[in-house]
Amino acid sequence: MASPNSTKRGVVLVADDDPVMRLLMLEMLGQVGLDGIEAEDGAQAVAYFQSMSPDLILLDVEMPNMDGFSACREIRRIETGAPVPIIMVTGGDDIEAVTNAYEVGATDFVSKPINWPILGHRVLYVLRASDAIVRLRAADAHNRAVLAAIPDTFFRLNRDGFYLDYEPGHERPGHGNISAFPMEACIGKHVTEVFPRDIAERLVEQMRAVLDTQHIRSVDYELVRFGAVHHFEARLVATGASEVLGLVRDISERKRTEEQIRRLAYCDSLTGIPNRQAFLETLERELHRSKTGNKKFAVLFMDLDAFKRINDTLGHNVGDSLLKVVSERLRETIRPSDLVARGDQSHNLARLGGDEFTILIPDLERVDHALNVAQRVKEAMRRPFLIDGNEIFVTASIGISLFPEDGDDCDSLLKFADTAMYHAKNCGKNNAKLYSSSLTMQIMSHVKLEVGLRKALKNQELYLLYQPQIEVRTGEIVGVEALVRWRHPERGIVSPTEFIPLAEETGLIVPIGEWVLRTACNQAMAWHRIARRSLRMAVNLSAKQFKDENLSQIVISALHDTGLDPKMLELELTEGTLMDDARATMATLEQLRAIGVYLSIDDFGTGYSSMNYLKRFDVRALKIDKSFICGLPQDTENAAITRAIIAMAHGLKMVVVAEGVETDEQLLMLQEYGCDMVQGFYLGHPSPHEAITQILLQPCAAAPAPAK
Ligand SMILES: Nc1nc2c(ncn2[C@@H]2O[C@@H]3COP(=O)(O)O[C@H]4[C@@H](O)[C@H](n5cnc6c(=O)[nH]c(N)nc65)O[C@@H]4COP(=O)(O)O[C@H]3[C@H]2O)c(=O)[nH]1
User: Fold this and answer.
1) Is the same domain home to 399 and 475?
2) Which residues form the Response regulatory domain (predicted)?
3) ipTM of the shown complex
4) What are the tens digits of pLDDT across the range 400-423?
5) 169 FRET partner, CA 20 to 30 A, in 182, 196, 413, 490?
């Protein structure tokens, strides 16, 4: 063929012993833009083919020396001769010559007498056709090379689902392709003979969809190959109106990775049970199912009581181990009949985070059922957990919300179960409570109070009252207890019994406590200046304040800034605060003692009441709780307890203060028992500082007038 730069369309070798014929042929070829080379016989034609590489050969059958058939055969034998188009010129009606021509490798033939006007066009057509064949062969070789290079198995199926072709890929070197079947097991077979029925049906269905839409589709399936389950993906593409090409790839690795990602996204890494995201999706599905099926379900929200304490005292490793065994125990507890209706129950239990777990109870017929599950969960949690040789006791608080009674969306149901759980905790822990709309109101007012408390200090809404402490022996006022009050802009005076727990919960107790301490120290110094008398100032310290690592610094700076003698400051702690974490308590007490302040135990008798324990803490005073005093003198039991406490405290060289003294009889009895100091409404209500100043300025200090 002519080079791409040539203006000629090709070079034709014309072999004929008749010079006239050759001349005419060259003339006709020239008409259509083709060049010609002449050969007089077959041998010359073979020689010229080799030396001049024509694009096409016109070979007369009958020639001297070597006839056209032999020349054709010779040329085909030559390596470069295979693809060149050869047109044989045969005698008219010589069918045998035509047959022979094809047998020896001719591409086409023209018969004599030659139709000269169309000869050139005929040659051009054959040239074009042969060019197309060359390109087709190249494309085919290219396709085969591509298919050989990719690891996938490929196959062709006809519309009826029969294999037309099958080429195993080479995914695993040395093992062949794991997705592939032997070629002979497929070609000519129907897919149902190769695959299990369900996979075959899906393949046929998708194949038809591919043919109908001419869009690519894929089919995922699992097969056991070489003793292991493998995942495959077959991508199907239409290659015509009734044929589909398929590429099969082993996607087991990808599936494994996907599963791992799914597990990471949906499983709680510590306990292995579903996490918040998974639970929310399960809840969403259950909501839809229950709405359409007109069914009910319950959401249980469980939180361990005092988990933080376990974490803080025994360490996070023990805390983590506890959460693991808690989740196992929950799994065992809720498995049997609670989740009857569902196939996959593993998603009905989840860990939302921290020590919060949720349980979904579908197909709830009676509320009792949810309460029973909660009861069982509570009991399961109460059994001791043995972790790293520690026997750990926990309890759980559980809140329950119901669909459709409490809400009809996931967020509300989860939030309400959480609200009910908080309510259960506030009701003394180890409780299970159903949600009710009034709880939201309670929580709202709680939240409102909290918002107000955050502003109370800045807005100067807090103030102190002081209750006198009287020495029994002399009847003189020797100290006061500072008691905080909150003047709420809307609610009026709020009792500390209401806002101190809230301040503890929110951590606001630390700045509030510091303000109380500074104000009280300041006031003690003010009295010292005005009345030239020293009163011991008692200040309550809550457990949270006691655990604050800056406590001693706060005390030091309050004393330093006000100039109060440390001996005139007494910090009141409850037994619970001291017993919480003995080691840390000792260290803090050590620091406080080094400062020189006094310590006393408030509300004594209501908690552990362990004298031995108190001895170790070296406290100055014991305050007998008012619940023992209020029944005196009639309540003989409380009288005996009060007497015993006073005697034992004296044995340990402690001062005893009786709280809540309201009557003369009580005072007389305490005097008789040898009580050192008394405090109570009978001797003075908590009063503003001005009232105490007046008492102090009187020549003989008497009890102050009651204050609101
Ligand atoms: N029935 C009766 N009650 C009497 C009598 N005498 C005194 N009281 C009341 O008994 C409580 C004694 O204080 P508490 O046991 O430390 O109990 C305190 C204390 O635990 C806490 N609190 C008060 N102020 C503070 C503070 O500044 N910081 C901290 N952390 N807690 C405080 O709030 C609790 C309650 O304080 P208040 O309401 O002021 O209640 C005070 C006081 O008003 C009496 O004769 N009869």
Assistant:
1) no
2) 11-127
3) 0.96
4) 999 999 999 999 999 999 999 988
5) 196
